[in-house]
Amino acid sequence: MGVDWWFWIMTDSAPIQPDLYLFPPPEIVLTFLSTPRYQCLTLHYSAISMQDFKHRDIPVPIQIHRGYVPGAIGRLLDLHGRYYSDRFGWGVQFEVEIAAELAAFFKHFNPDHDGFWVAMMDKQMVGGIAIDGSNAQKARLRWFIVDPNYHGQGLGRSLMQVAIDFCQSVGFDEIYLWTAAGLPAAHHLYRQFGFSLVETVIDDRWGGQNNHQKFICALSPVQG
Q1: Residue 116: exposed, middle, or buried by beta-carbon count in 10 A (0-12, 13-18, 19+)?
Q2: What is the dihedral of CA 204, 207, 211, 213, to 10 degrees?
Q3: Which residue has the higher pLDDT, 121 or 59?
Q4: DSSP secondary-structure letter at 18?
């Protein structure tokens, strides 16, 4: 019996990326599935194990999973700590603050207005995003990150889309986020999803002066 794996590669506003799975072996059947909000690429592997993927250099599909998975908090800390240390030199104070805020978020997590999604590849978390909905009208997008080894594959766009769709379904009027200056690829993605830069502040809490920037996105009600 074959196994179905899937990877979101398209939304209403995103072009399809057929080059993700060029030249698959003949055992793989590619099919496209459509829903009102997504299109996804489903790969059907007949009697191919995950070890077969590695031995044949076949790309392992990546799945967007909603909700906590074991190790997610530690993995988010690891991804943030390494990435922002390499990029900006942020150290232990940054990780301590992220750890405390993540712990508080999950301790008080309410699925009615909070959201959390991870990108999983072969049981490994390679990206994540969260929506903090503790404010009744304004959702905060937080801890959005993709492992640098998987940049350029559409993962960031897929995570952003599920988070924004969730916010619309809950009925938030606005989403906002804080980010650092000097991340042009991320800022370009935010603007593609309708975010605008509204505030810049200088912050040196984590070592090294950096401009922290606030982006907001006004949401339209879901048409029933």
Answers
A1: buried
A2: -90
A3: 121
A4: G
Do 150 and 3 form a contact (C-beta atoms < 8 A)?
A: no
Average pLDDT (112-140) is 94
Say which residues have a Cβ less than 8 Å from residue 80's Cβ, sequence separation at least 6: 94, 95, 98, 143, 145
Q: What was the pLDDT predicted at 59?
A: 54
Nearest to 80 by CA among 131, 19, 128: 128
Lookup result for tokens 């935010």 = 190
Q: Rounded to two decimals, what is the model's pTM?
A: 0.74
- Residues 16-35: tens digit of each pLDDT: 333 333 333 433 333 334 33
Instruction: Quickly state the pLDDT bin for 220 (edges 50, 70, 90).
Output: confident
Amino acid at 110: N
Residue 181 pairs with which residues in a beta bridge? none
How far is it, in rounded angstroms, from Cα 183 to Cα 186? 6
Main-chain dihedrals φ then ψ at residue 190, nearest 5 degrees: -60, -45
Q: Hey, what amino acid is at 105?
A: F
Closest to 129 measured CA to CA, from 140, 138, 85: 140
Domains and CATH numbers, the chain: 2-61 (no CATH), 65-218 (3.40.630.30)
Q: In terms of DSSP bridges, do strands 38-46 and 28-34 run parallel, antiparallel, or are they unpaired?
A: antiparallel
Tokens describing residue 126: 């390679």
**CA-to-CA distance for 130 and 140, rounded, in angstroms?**
8
At 69-104, the pLDDT tens digits run 999 999 999 999 999 999 999 989 999 999 999 999
